[in-house]
Amino acid sequence: MVHRALRLAAPAVVALLAVTTACTGTTVQGRPGASGLRDPFFPKAGNGGYDVRHYGLDLTYEPDTGRLSGTAVLTATATQGLSSFNLDLDGLDVQGVTVQGAGARFNRTGHELTIRPAGELEKGEEFRAEVRYAGRPRTVEDGDGSEEGWIRTDDGAVGVGEPVGSMAWFPGNHHPSDKATYDITLRVPQGYEAVSNGELRSRADDGQGRTVFAWHAAEPMASYLATAAIGRYKISTTRSPGGVPVLNAVVPEEAAGSAPALERLPEVVDWGSRLFGPYPFASAGAIVERSGTLGYALETQTRPVYSGAPEVELVVHETAHQWFGDSVSPASWKDMWLNEGFATYAEWLWSEQHGGVRAQERFEAFLDGDTDVDPSALEDWAAFPPAVPPGPARISDAPVYYRGAMVLHRIRQEAGDEAFFDLVRGWAAERRHGNATTADFTAYAEERTGQDLDEVWDVWLYGQDRPKAPRR
Ligand code: ARG
Ligand code: ZN
């Protein structure tokens, strides 16, 4: 009996003490930050309790052994009192962690790296966490069988991270809702190039056989859009007629094949700026790997990665993502159609504005399965509604792309060209360098166009049935 009473009393005393300290205005006890942001598809991606403002990565890579080593310095703000907080890191060895310059205890379970600072962090406090780590970063297999994370190539490697592969090469708050600026410094053996997001601030010899490339991404970036590409690329730079600096890195084998599409990249950037509003970043470009390196291209910020020489339509797609996906990022991985629907529709717009198939014809081709107009028209575009993918393995499936584009075309049919293009530009401006949910978009679309678009949402965006041709 006595024993039992004591056990009950202990927590009560602790609670009483906490209340007392809270009332007297002294430090409120911090608590652990959440180990995930409860994304509907990737609940453990990202972490709660803090907001990263900046990542400083300083990484050395050995192409011969595949070993990566260095430090990640995160500058973040605590959004609650924190006794501990998590970063996401998949694989690799953590050699040491400091918070505010003082050694911090840490432990690892799965991809959660839990850090316990020597002193608690207060709500609103800005702090600096430094993680020293090394190892051979892993390639991550996605639910749909494609590869991301760290991919070794014939002469180097490339880091890509949609949706969750970036945690394979640097620790962080790996969810698109926490965007931050980046400085990515890459140290590689002489003779190699190392390319990343943003602008090259410096390129120097370290006096010990390595070249040090310092890249700076000044605008907020979701971590899945970060890249590091190491190899023997041919580097070329130019500027779009509208003034956007362009830097391309192309493996020698793909140089000739890439030239026709990459020569048009400056024009594509300026075309997008006219249609979608000012280009959101300080530079543009491309990284072209050997064909077969990845089964897809990725819209890594300012500098998409291509797997083999791209066609101009693919360059249009990845460039359109700079507005839709990179500048306006999804609030969760369920909102992926906001990325892919827009990027696909941008291809349709490019085509109709450059003497090709009109968007209306392409829309009809999907309804009719007419592969003469679009070879993708036979893909299972109606398998599920774009705003409701059946699971994390399906976020890159055909409906997210093609039916997503058809949703946008339906808005255009209802609102007319003038209101539709005003909406597209307005949306890119409204959420520039931010995040958005599907509900944010549908509310904005109705408000901006002044149209009741319920039928478009109910049938095309959320409806389980295969939509029929609209009566016009
Ligand atoms: N977002 C990329 C694009 O369409 C495609 C990524 C595909 N990833 C995947 N796991 N299937 O531009
Ligand atoms: Zn895409």
Low-confidence stretches: 1-25
Largest beta-sheet details: 8 strands, mixed
Shape: globular
Output the radius of gyration: 24 Å
Small molecules (ligands, ions, cofactors) in the structure: arginine, zinc ion
Structural class: alpha+beta
With strands numbered from the N-terminus, the spatial order across the biggest sheet is: 6-5-9-3-2-13-16-15
Percent of residues in helices comes to: 25-40%
Structure in words:
The N and C termini lie far apart (79 Å). The protein has helices at residues 2-24, 255-262, 265-276, 312-320, 337-353, 359-368, 398-430, 438-449, 454-461, and strands at residues 31-32, 50-62, 67-78, 82-88, 93-99, 102-103, 105-109, 112-116, 126-135, 139-141, 147-152, 157-160, 180-189, 193-196, 199-205, 210-221, 228-231, 234-239, 245-250, 284-289, 305-307, 328-330, 434-436. The strands form 5 sheets. It has an 8-stranded mixed sheet with strand order 6-5-9-3-2-13-16-15, with no helix packed on it. Strands 10-11-12-17-14 form a 5-stranded antiparallel sheet, with no helix packed on it. The protein has a 4-stranded mixed sheet with strand order 1-4-8-7, with no helix packed on it. The model is unreliable at 1-25 (pLDDT under 50). Helix 3 (265-276) crosses helix 4 (312-320) and helix 7 runs antiparallel to helix 9. The chain is α+β, with helices and mostly antiparallel strands and 472 residues long. The structure holds arginine and zinc ion (ZN). Residues 142, 144, 146, 162, 296-299, 317-318, 340, 396 line the site of arginine (ARG). Zinc ion (ZN) binds at residues 317, 321, 340, 343.
